[in-house]
Amino acid sequence: MPDDFRDIGPETAGGCATPETLEAAARKAGQGDLLDRYKADYPVGPHDKPQSMCPAFGSLRTGLRMKRVATVLSGSACCVYGLTFVSHFYGARRSVGYVPFDSETLVTGKLFEDIRDAVHKLADPEKLDAIIVTNLCVPTASGVPLRLLPDQIDGVRIIGIDVPGFGIPTHAEAKDVLAGAMLSYARKEVAAGPVPMPAAGKSDRPTVALLGEMFPADPLGIAGMLAPLGLAAGPVVPCREWREFYSALDCSVAAAIHPFYTAAVREFQAAGRPILASAPVGVDGTAAWLTSVGDAFGISAAKVAEAQNQFTPAIRAALDAARIDGTITVSGYEGSELLVARLLIESGADVPYVGTACAKSPWSAPDVEWLEARGVTVKFRASLEDDLSVVEGLRPDLSIGTTPVVQKAKELGIPALYFTNLISARPLMGPAGAGSLQQVVNAAMGNKDRMARMRGFFEGVGHGDTAGVWEGDPNLRPDFRAAHQKKLDKKARADKAAQMI
Ligand code: SF4
């Protein structure tokens, strides 16, 4: 199973309905305000909507990682099958609830009643703090009103979110939809009165909450760098247990380590918390980030410089200890692509291109500035075609990317690494992050000769007419192909003529 996959359901993939049709239906069903908010939070321009996995996977996985939280999906069976399959592939070890529907229950409103019955049955306060109900494409398009679910049942919070493929561009941003909804709920609870203490207790120092799913060593590394400033790292949002949202909101400052958490940032800002951009990666990134932490807390320049002097030499030493010599292109949809590129460049690599499926935001501005000052082309909302054409055109020594990009690179005999499985699964921050990428990157680049030998060995296999398993030679029918092409050309001409009328 690859680390990403295309749209797994039929509604947008198989042509039952286009995303435009679904969006029009959703607007007709009263979801216009929601879709407009998504458009503002997750802008898709100037490029087309990037290709990625079903966005609901992002919010599903975020919910499945939380303690004492149940997740329920409402959508087409094939979408739910794909989503649960992939969540278990990634080790969910938790049941995913499903409320099925058919045309009748969808049209008559019975589906909503079924969802309400399901959450009532599930809501056991002995076992659960919250239940997350997610409308996938079809229920969102049909306007199934999750907002009418009870706010809580016997103390179990009910969070309803719509995560349609035609409204949320990437699975990364779907994590934000859920994180934002949970923070919003928690913020109202805090405003209403005292809330319980998180199981891990409360720091006696002012905290910096961290936005974005990171490698587990990274929050610890960040905490170590904050300690000399008299600060602590707050919880990572999305949190792993409900009460952590209270401590997250109780932070003094929130750091948008991953820059696409628009809805979550809105909640922190509503709670009066300033937001920090970028992250402590590499020498420059760490020094700049510590400076902005110091500014946010009003810490003296001398104390900040002391912390910088404590950590940046160790980072520089780690970067110097294992240099990277070669050209690397980076593309992905996790939101940390720019940070990875910074680290690679400080390690000596030439990185001409970084493509990310996520949108531009104020929280990645320092990274864009730093990268562009070094001649890097940074492409937000990069399409698969953008990423592929860069690999084909530049022929780097290493391509870091999503599954189809890696596949293309390997076909070209270029060593490649999956961003999600191999790069995101490493620390990036501070001294621990500085030394972590070089080993895997250098090992991959060292495989160039092997890639070339493999390419030679498999030359011509698996392409075009030779794709698949054949006992004899493929039965080629160029005449059929030519006749079919004629039909396509004729249809294209007719469509064009119709557009001009
Ligand atoms: S929910 Fe929408 S985007 Fe996701 S698999 Fe189903 S049709 Fe595709």
UniProtKB/TrEMBL annotation:
<keyword id="KW-0560">Oxidoreductase</keyword>
<dbReference type="InterPro" id="IPR016209">
    <property type="entry name" value="Protochlorophyllide_Rdtase"/>
</dbReference>
<keyword id="KW-0077">Bacteriochlorophyll biosynthesis</keyword>
<keyword id="KW-0812">Transmembrane</keyword>
<dbReference type="InterPro" id="IPR000510">
    <property type="entry name" value="Nase/OxRdtase_comp1"/>
</dbReference>
<comment type="pathway">
    <text>Porphyrin-containing compound metabolism; bacteriochlorophyll biosynthesis.</text>
</comment>
<dbReference type="GO" id="GO:0016491">
    <property type="term" value="F:oxidoreductase activity"/>
</dbReference>
<keyword id="KW-0149">Chlorophyll biosynthesis</keyword>
<feature type="transmembrane region" description="Helical">
    <location>
        <begin position="69"/>
        <end position="90"/>
    </location>
</feature>
<protein>
    <submittedName>
        <fullName>Chlorophyllide a reductase subunit Y</fullName>
        <ecNumber>1.3.7.15</ecNumber>
    </submittedName>
</protein>
<dbReference type="InterPro" id="IPR050293">
    <property type="entry name" value="LIPOR_BchN/ChlN"/>
</dbReference>
<dbReference type="InterPro" id="IPR010245">
    <property type="entry name" value="BchY"/>
</dbReference>
<keyword id="KW-0602">Photosynthesis</keyword>
<feature type="domain" description="Nitrogenase/oxidoreductase component 1">
    <location>
        <begin position="54"/>
        <end position="442"/>
    </location>
</feature>
<keyword id="KW-1133">Transmembrane helix</keyword>
<keyword id="KW-0472">Membrane</keyword>
<dbReference type="Pfam" id="PF00148">
    <property type="entry name" value="Oxidored_nitro"/>
</dbReference>
